[in-house]
Specification:
- The chain is mainly α.
- It has 2 domains: 3-184 and 298-326, Rossmann fold (3-Layer(aba) Sandwich), CATH 3.40.50.620; 214-292, Tyrosyl-Transfer RNA Synthetase.
- It is 56% helix and 7% strand.
- It has helices at residues 16-29, 41-44, 51-67, 85-96, 99-103, 106-119, 124-127, 129-139, 152-169, 214-223, 240-253, 257-263, 268-295, 299-326; strands at 3-8, 34-39, 75-79, 144-146, 177-179.
- Helix 4 (85-96) packs across helix 8 (129-139), helix 4 runs parallel beside helix 14 (299-326) and helix 8 packs across helix 9.
- The chain binds tryptophanyl-5'AMP.
Amino acid sequence: MDVIFSGIQPSGDLTLGNYLGALKNFIPFQDKAECFYCIVNQHAITVPQDPKLLHERTRNLAALYIAAGLDPKKATIFVQSEVPEHALLGWMMICSAYVGEMERMTQYKSKAQKQEKKNGFIPLGLLTYPPLMAADILLYQATFVPVGDDQRQHMEITRDLAERFNRKYGEVFTLPEMWAPEGGARVMSLQEPTKKMSKSDDNEWATIHMLDEPDVITKKIKRAVTDSIGHVHYDKENQPGVSNLMSIHSAFSGKNFEEIEKMYEGQGYGVFKKDLIDLIVDQMSPILSRYKELMGSPELDSILDEGAAKAHARASITYNKAIHAMGLYRK
Ligand code: TYM
């Protein structure tokens, strides 16, 4: 049976990008595979976090996982820092990695630059982020990892580290495959559509959050940048704004670009945007109301306690194999 692992950082309010690129795609796997879905709070601290906010966001993200459709009876939902094997195997992966390959990671380069500008230093954790992510995945011998397109390089390095370890110390790890959705793998900013939609964007109009109320979604889509061409047409070069909105439409409606172009032929952007708002609101409102219910219930803690115990039971099997392979044991 396939084993699925994925994680999201509790580092800000989740965006439509996180939903379409990752969370939405977690759901169908729970009926056909063994699933581990993690709240990766140890990745979140690779940049400075406010402790109280990090604590709150960790719980909020767990509630959002469930509100979006994850069923704790089918999938294991847990917090990364509550399963110590992540940090332990993470260290072993760091020791198997090279400084040069880490410095070449594009996400490292852009985040390091941002941190240096903002705080005057580059946290070392940013450089060692990928080996910790590799540890997350390899601990569960995952076969598939549903993630957005921006994680491609991290997935490649995960496979490289696993292969390197297996070659040197014997076959311990399964090589995981990335699973990216056809539509929604890269949702772009609504204001600068050549840039990816991100939790940490300072421009509130650029990002739709999963928990935005319908009136906020409406305003943001209405304000989304388009162009003066006036045709609903997929052309990332010349119509990046409209193309991004079409990708979002497609991810929600299941229609391909050709079908969407036909639907709005000769109609300009008004009708298209109105339908898009309806599509987003229809799918996101039930998530918002379930989320509000869950936040007020004591259920969440028992789900996460159970999840951590199940994840630990599984992770410790691989961890034991890995320390024996590496000679990191006494008896
Ligand atoms: P994070 O929290 O930055 O993003 C979580 C997921 O959301 C996807 N995503 C997007 N997809 C489409 N369009 C966007 N604009 C967009 N923005 C974000 C990301 O691709 C990701 O799937 N490194 C991971 C966290 C992680 C992880 C793991 C993932 C740590 N360990 C192990 C999988 C397996 C990340 O950056 O998360």
